[in-house]
From TrEMBL:
Keywords: 4Fe-4S, Iron, Iron-sulfur, Metal-binding, Oxidoreductase, PQQ biosynthesis, S-adenosyl-L-methionine. Binds 1 [4Fe-4S] cluster. The cluster is coordinated with 3 cysteines and an exchangeable S-adenosyl-L-methionine. It is an enzyme of class 1 (oxidoreductase). [4Fe-4S] cluster binds at residues 16, 20, 23. Its EC number is 1.21.98.4. Residues 349-368 are annotated as: Disordered. It catalyses: [PQQ precursor protein] + S-adenosyl-L-methionine = E-Y cross-linked-[PQQ precursor protein] + 5'-deoxyadenosine + L-methionine + H(+). Belongs to the radical SAM superfamily. PqqE family. Residues 353-368 have a biased composition (Basic and acidic residues). Residues 2-218 form the Radical SAM core domain. Pathway: Cofactor biosynthesis; pyrroloquinoline quinone biosynthesis. The gene is pqqE. It comes from Paeniroseomonas aquatica. This is PqqA peptide cyclase. Its cofactor is [4Fe-4S] cluster.
Amino acid sequence: MTDAPLALLAELTHRCPLRCPYCSNPTALTGPGEELDTATWARVFAEAAELGCLQLHLSGGEPTARRDILDLVRAAGGAGLYTNLITAGVLLDAGRLAALAEAGLDHVQLSVQDAEAGSADRIGGYAGGHAKKLAVGRLVTAAGLPLTLNAVVHRQNLDRLPALIDLALDLGAGRLEVAHVQYYGWALRNRDALLPTRAQLEAATATVEAARAAHRGRLVIDYVVPDYYAKRPKACMGGWGRRFLAVSPAGRILPCHAAESLPGFDFPNVRTSSLRAAWEGSEAFARYRGTGWMPEPCRGCDRAEVDWGGCRCQAFALTGDAAATDPACALSPDHGLLALAVEEAAGAGEGFTYREPRPEPRRAPAPG
Ligand code: SF4
Ligand code: FES
């Protein structure tokens, strides 16, 4: 019998005013005309609660780009789900935030691209975005909503980690996620411009340890060593099909937000399948669930039920085989690919290939 999932990630839309070069959306974005309507999302939220989910993450793209966001928050609350809004913030103001709180929103996770406005706006590809985010962060706490600040970190902002921690404290955030870029999709295209150096990583780890001790009881800092410097992989999504499911803007039911990057899958869709049928009965969710699918060296490894073989999307992105051991593991025969990538990135420039809705992405100039 399959355990119930803990959380549903609802990717309401791929529309977003920002163009982050590490965006976790697929490189082939879904257009607005293909998005699920309000009633279908409301049914999906009810099904998630019935399946056993406790948390709902409303994400995108930018979820507040949906004109029906208040109806969606109300539907989620009505289904009994704890609702977290994952937002870039730039479409919010005091009125919309008050309305979201009134509709039953439980928590806001606000992204920042850097602690310094010029760099933040360049990374997000959105002029004036950083100042707007700071204002919105203050409005979130003023509205009485708990705030998590999410800082995706990489070579071009990691040196300002102390300032990012100060920013989280200043905004009254209870939690700061220091999230190293995950390299698939858009981020893989920009890997050379984003991979941090080992010296940066060591400094950041020391900064986090000191800040955790200094701000205990006031700020929780989540921090995971980036895969490219790890000896063992993370348990991506808590293991394939074990804890989480995601629904894409077009309704595809996925074991993780990046699963559409994997070829050879026929993912169920909420238009024709219930979440329960997908979770309990689909081949897509069963394929890498548990340990039975594992190759050597995962098979029989004492960490097989700790990290579940790592990340399938990263394994595919780096080796072309989604069933391979995640190369982040030092026991993987492909582990050397990571050191090679770090070496290549060391001599690379800082220009980005920005996420674009359509048509094909264009190159941006390097800073300065
Ligand atoms: Fe994890 Fe597989 Fe590496 Fe063992 S061999 S630590 S299960 S990735
Ligand atoms: Fe898809 Fe890790 S992101 S399994």
